[in-house]
């Protein structure tokens, strides 16, 4: 495999893997500030032309209370996480979120995800991710962050960076 193909494939697999889990949000409906109704989270992220998303993942509480998101309600068979472009992804942890409503921010302790395309598997972990609230809603957009490779093929880059606003989460 040429180095150009290897670089493009590894960038796509790595970036999409990060997308799949960091991806927490992105529904078109916006919940108002204050208690949410059903303790659910939708997620979406666009990476290298591929979209990974899910809907109705379970959370342990409603914002602004600190909460965790249940990975079993995101990953198949209990969840509906799906990616375009022939990529599969799995969230390996239950991300914990804290909220600072006065500052309009949310923070995630860590997101650990695996992605696979064809025969190439990559696992990445990002820590201390900061999200900006979108106006007076419970939708949050990520600040730029870098996820480091935890394991995987030599075709996987050592780290992948997600630009600001490429991932979102919506608590409802």
SSE topology:
Layout: H1 3-22, E1 40-47, E2 50-58, E3 67-68, E4 82-83, E5 87-91, E6 96-100, E7 105-117, E8 120-133, E9 139-142, E10 145-152, E11 159-162, E12 167-171
Antiparallel strand pairs: 1-2, 1-12, 2-4, 3-6, 5-7, 6-7, 7-8, 8-9, 8-10, 9-12, 10-11
Core attributes:
mainly beta; disordered N terminus; twelve-stranded antiparallel sheet; 172 residues
Characterize the structure shown.
The protein is mostly beta strands. Helix content is 12%, strand content 46%. It has one helix spanning 3-22; strands at 40-47, 50-58, 67-68, 82-83, 87-91, 96-100, 105-117, 120-133, 139-142, 145-152, 159-162, 167-171. Strands 1, 2, 3, 4, 5, 6, 7, 8, 9, 10, 11 and 12 form a 12-stranded antiparallel β-sheet that branches.
Number of strands: 12
H and E string: HEEEEEEEEEEEE
Q: Rough shape?
A: globular
Main sheet attributes: strand count, strand direction, barrel closure: 12 strands, antiparallel
Give the termini distance in whole angstroms. 45 Å
Strand content: over 45%
Our Rg estimate from Cα atoms comes to 15 Å
Q: Give the rounded overall mean pLDDT.
A: 83
* Structural class by helix and strand composition: mainly beta
Show unreliable segments. 2-32
- Helix tally equals 1
Give the proportion of residues in helices: 10-25%
């Amino acid at each position: 495999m040429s180095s150009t193909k290897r670089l493009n494939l590894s960038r796509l697999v790595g970036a999409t893997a990060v997308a799949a889990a960091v991806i927490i949000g992105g529904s078109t409906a916006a919940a108002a500030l204050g208690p949410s109704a059903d303790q659910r989270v939708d997620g979406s992220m666009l990476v290298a032309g591929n979209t990974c998303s899910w809907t109705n993942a379970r959370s342990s509480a409603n914002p602004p209370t600190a909460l965790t998101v249940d990975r079993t309600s995101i990953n198949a068979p209990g969840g509906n996480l799906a990616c375009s472009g022939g990529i599969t992804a799995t969230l390996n942890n239950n991300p914990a979120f804290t909220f600072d409503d006065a500052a309009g921010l949310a923070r995630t302790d860590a997101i650990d995800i695996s992605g696979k395309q064809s025969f190439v598997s990559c696992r990445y972990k990002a820590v201390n991710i900061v999200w900006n609230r979108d106006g007076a809603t419970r939708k949050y957009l990520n600040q730029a962050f870098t996820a480091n490779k935890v394991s995987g093929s030599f075709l996987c880059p050592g780290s992948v960076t997600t630009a600001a606003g490429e991932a979102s989460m919506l608590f409802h």
